[in-house]
């Protein structure tokens, strides 16, 4: 699937299944509403209307089901008939699974996605996840020709077909998801901090933006003790990079801060042989922010948007940070290192403070593969969200459901939990005293403490340690979530629709006037 070209079209056109293999996906109730005339050109003559209706009758999703229509060339697959309140109505995770397992082989294939308009965005991102780009299999490198997969949406209800602008949004979102997944899948010998900076520069060139880059010893000189301390032992120096979109007429400033640990050995608090494999994925937050920034700016964004990348390799060497070392972070606060494997919070602390002090951000969101405890807290499909704003907590959950990148709140209670970082020598330690006391929440609180718990802006922390991958493949998780969460600030109608403001809020006009930075997005 590494050499697949994914295209979204109003109509995929007519073609026999022998020529162009076909998969039709949807909830059973939606599939039954499809007019035979809408799909017959893709199935006839080998599949008749009677065969189609018999296949629909044979489907018994529990939670999913599929039925072949013609040999291995055509199939129909049913999504769950209903989902719980903590799942996406689009059943996005099941869409990805069905595409991977049921789409027939071939060089030119077609997917017909049958859904309501509100589920189109999440479904398209889910389809994109099924087609990872990175591969170093020798057979795939010898195969020069590209495989094409065309996606057509059949919209159920009174809405008409998708327009060109909506298809462009889906294409850019899918490209963002696949970009993030490719970076996460790429091992550190090909995706060190130098290579990651090249990815950032390439996106900047495409968007007409020159990144700001602070690297190596300059980080130390400017006070970025977190990023420098984590990455100073690596062959390729650490860096802080920023892509900035500053349009005329912007009324607020938003910063996305991504953890970009290109490899995490654990440092001198080294990981074991079973826990270290897979740590190439520790840059998942930065990768998601890069993919989302690229797609979001392409669709038009009304406000100032900064993407801040905190890049480092947590390596072992003569100059590596030691447990007991004390570092001064960009906030000016001192941190006693008691666990060099708790490094992500150190680089992010520098990143969020830079966003506040240097970029004057009103809204700061950090995204990271921060804690293994996240999977225990919220599971393998739901990101863990913590924020100083109850409104934004609800918005993250709603954006997760509308985008398919699910999220669920963590406890936010610094007065009960931050004492876990108490140090006799410095302002704080970097790892908790009691690992059984809300680990994921505490890790997030460490980052927030450098902004200050009384910071007047909106701070959102998103831990994506588990959903960043499914098995051995990256998912590109976070791209769709960010695009939906901030969709109301987009010029794009589809992103407006999936944003948390899609539903009316109960906030009074007077309160909205007083709290302008929350007004548009939540």
Describe this structure in words.
By secondary structure, this protein is of the alpha/beta class. Helix content is 36%, strand content 21%. It is built from 20 helices and 19 strands. It has an 8-stranded mixed β-sheet, with helices on both faces. The chain has a 6-stranded mixed β-sheet with strand order 1-6-5-2-4-3, sandwiched between helices. The protein has a 3-stranded mixed β-sheet with strand order 11-12-16, covered by helices on one side. A hairpin with a 5-residue loop joins strand 11 (326-328) and strand 12. Residues 503-519 have low confidence and may be disordered.
Compact description:
The chain has helices at residues 28-31, 36-43, 49-58, 92-102, 120-129, 138-142, 164-185, 193-207, 217-222, 225-231, 284-298, 344-357, 373-378, 390-403, 414-417, 439-451, 479-485, 493-498, 509-514, 516-519, and strands at 4-9, 22-27, 65-70, 74-79, 108-116, 147-156, 212-215, 239-245, 253-264, 304-314, 326-328, 334-336, 363-368, 383-387, 407-409, 428-429, 458-463, 469-470, 473-474.
Category by helix and strand content: alpha/beta
C-alpha end-to-end distance:
38 Å
| Shape by Cα distribution | elongated
Report the strand count.
Answer: 19
In the predicted model, the low-confidence regions spanning at least 5 consecutive residues are 503-519
Strand order within the widest beta sheet: 7-8-10-9-13-17-14-15
Q: What gyration radius follows from the Cα positions, in whole Å?
A: 23 Å
Main β-sheet: number of strands, strand sense, barrel status?
A: 8 strands, mixed
Compute the average pLDDT.
Answer: 94
Helicity level: 25-40%
Q: Name the beta content range.
A: 15-25%
By DSSP (H or I, 4+ residues per run), the number of helices equals 20
């Amino acid at each position: 699937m590494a050499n697949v070209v994914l295209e979204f079209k109003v109509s995929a056109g007519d073609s026999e299944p022998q020529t162009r293999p076909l998969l039709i996906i949807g909830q059973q109730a939606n599939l039954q509403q499809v007019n035979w005339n809408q799909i017959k050109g893709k199935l006839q003559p080998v599949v008749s209307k009677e065969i189609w209706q018999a296949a629909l009758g044979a489907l018994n999703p529990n939670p999913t089901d599929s039925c072949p229509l013609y040999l291995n060339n055509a199939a129909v697959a049913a999504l769950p008939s209903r989902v719980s309140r903590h799942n996406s109505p689009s059943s996005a995770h099941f869409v990805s699974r069905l595409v991977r397992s049921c789409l027939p082989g071939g060089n030119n294939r077609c997917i017909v996605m049958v859904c309501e308009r509100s589920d189109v965005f999440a479904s398209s991102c889910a389809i994109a996840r099924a087609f990872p780009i990175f591969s170093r299999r020798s057979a795939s490198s010898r195969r020069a020709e590209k495989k094409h997969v065309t996606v057509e949406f059949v919209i159920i209800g009174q809405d008409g077909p998708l327009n060109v602008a909506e298809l462009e949004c889906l294409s850019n979102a899918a490209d963002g998801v696949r970009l993030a997944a490719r970076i996460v899948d790429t091992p550190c010998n090909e995706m060190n901090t130098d290579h990651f900076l090249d990815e950032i520069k390439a996106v900047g060139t495409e968007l007409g933006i020159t990144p700001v880059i602070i690297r190596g010893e300059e980080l130390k000189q400017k006070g970025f003790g977190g990023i420098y301390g984590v990455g100073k032992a690596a062959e390729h120096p650490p860096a802080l990079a920023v892509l900035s979109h500053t349009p005329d007429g912007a009324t607020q400033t938003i910063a996305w801060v991504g953890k970009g640990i290109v490899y995490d050995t654990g440092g001198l608090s080294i990981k074991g042989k079973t826990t270290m494999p897979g740590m190439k994925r520790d840059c998942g937050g930065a990768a998601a922010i890069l993919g989302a920034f690229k797609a979001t700016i392409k669709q038009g964004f009304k406000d100032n948007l900064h993407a801040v990348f905190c890049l480092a390799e947590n390596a072992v060497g003569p100059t590596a940070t030691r447990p007991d070392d004390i570092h001064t972070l960009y906030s000016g606060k001192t941190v006693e290192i008691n666990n060099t494997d708790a490094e992500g919070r150190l680089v992010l602390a520098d990143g969020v403070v830079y966003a506040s002090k240097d970029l004057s951000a009103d809204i700061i969101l950090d995204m990271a593969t921060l804690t293994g405890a996240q999977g225990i807290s919220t599971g393998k499909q739901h990101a863990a969200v913590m924020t100083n704003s109850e409104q934004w907590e609800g918005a993250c959950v709603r954006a997760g459901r509308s985008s398919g990148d699910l999220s669920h709140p963590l406890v936010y209670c610094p007065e009960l939990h931050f004492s876990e970082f108490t140090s006799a020598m410095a302002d704080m330690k970097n790892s908790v005293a009691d690992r059984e006391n809300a680990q994921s929440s505490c890790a997030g609180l460490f980052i927030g403490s450098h902004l200050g718990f009384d910071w007047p802006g909106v701070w959102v922390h998103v831990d994506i340690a588990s959903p960043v991958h499914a098995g051995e493949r990256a998912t590109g998780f976070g791209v769709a979530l960010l695009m939906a969460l901030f969709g109301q600030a987009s010029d794009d109608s589809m992103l407006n629709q999936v944003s948390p403001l899609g539903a009316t809020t109960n906030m009074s006009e007077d309160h909205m006037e007083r709290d302008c930075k929350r007004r548009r997005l939540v």
